[in-house]
Specification:
By secondary structure, this protein is mainly beta. The protein is 0% helix and 50% strand. The protein is built from no helices and 23 strands. The strands form 5 sheets. A 6-stranded antiparallel beta sheet has the order 1-2-3-4-5-6, with no helix packed on it. A hairpin with a 2-residue loop joins strand 7 and strand 8. The protein is elongated and about 95 Å long.
């Protein structure tokens, strides 16, 4: 190796004896440059900056840094603050983990899972919260379900939905004037609760065991008698509603009359 000094621009060049290309540059600011003569962070090359004691590695179109731990599992990178370890990135059994103290995550590409981990990369069960009361995440998008309070199939909530529907006029209704209706629903798992209104501008009535409406938002799995009617009538005219399996039809078990509005609430399984 040979060294030449350029006193005009204060650049020391160390050249290989086999070529004239610059191998290492130390500029007048005492920055060490490899693969470049510029200390600009946007240019390709390896730069050790004397100002701020900063290392910058820039490469176009490929990874700028490769770290390779051989033989054993453990940390590949450690991060320190005031010479105290504050975080690490490593591997255990071929799985990458990211840790800060005993709070960490493992990225298990073999099982398509992200798992809570402790300091050494091992599993940490039921100990790490996601968010906090004053530091919440916004939206959570799931394509399947969430297990609440346990890991069995009975603990899985795989659907929650709210929406609107339009009850169609049932054949058991007697409507005077113009018919109108509205409805909304809440679906939690396989249980649906509907809230609806059927109206006659002059009056509306329903016969006993008459169809009050069709077009419930989901097909009914089994006979259900959960429900209560309210509206512009006395409590003696309240009715129990019946839904039949494999339909979207709602029946009134009792006759209701003397009203311009029949409001109903009904819960059924899908």
């Amino acid at each position: 190796m040979s060294k030449a000094r350029n006193t005009a621009d204060q650049i020391n060049r160390v050249n290989s004896s086999a070529a004239d290309a610059t191998a290492i540059t130390i500029d007048s600011s005492e920055n060490v440059l490899v693969g470049t003569t510029s200390s600009d962070d946007s240019t390709d090359g390896f730069k050790v900056k004397s100002s701020g004691q900063k290392l910058t590695i820039t490469r176009n179109g490929a990874e700028p840094l490769v770290l390779n731990r051989r033989a054993s599992d453990g940390d590949i990178v450690k991060f320190r603050k005031d010479n105290i370890n504050v975080a690490s990135i490593g591997t255990l059994g071929g799985v990458t983990y990211i840790n800060s103290g005993d709070v960490g995550l493992s990225l298990d590409w073999g099982s398509d899972q992200i798992k809570p981990r402790q300091a050494n990369g091992a599993n940490r069960d039921a100990a790490i919260d996601l968010g906090a009361s004053a530091s919440r995440f916004k939206d959570l998008y799931l394509s399947s379900g969430v297990y609440l309070g346990g890991t069995g199939s009975a603990n899985k909530l795989d659907d929650y939905e709210i929406g609107n529907f339009v009850p169609n006029q049932g054949s058991g209704l007697t409507v005077s004037g113009t018919f109108s209706s509205s409805g909304r629903y809440i679906k939690v798992g396989n249980l649906v609760t509907v809230f609806g209104n059927v109206n006659g501008s002059s009056s509306i009535a329903v016969s006993a065991v008459g169809i009050i409406c069709t077009n419930l938002p989901f097909s009914i799995a089994e006979i259900s008698t959960l429900g209560i009617a309210t509206g512009a009538w006395t409590s003696s005219n309240s009715a129990t509603f019946i839904s039949l399996g494999a339909t979207t039809t709602l029946y009134s078990a009792q006759a209701v009359s003397g009203a311009t509005n029949i409001a109903f609430t009904h819960t059924y399984r899908v």
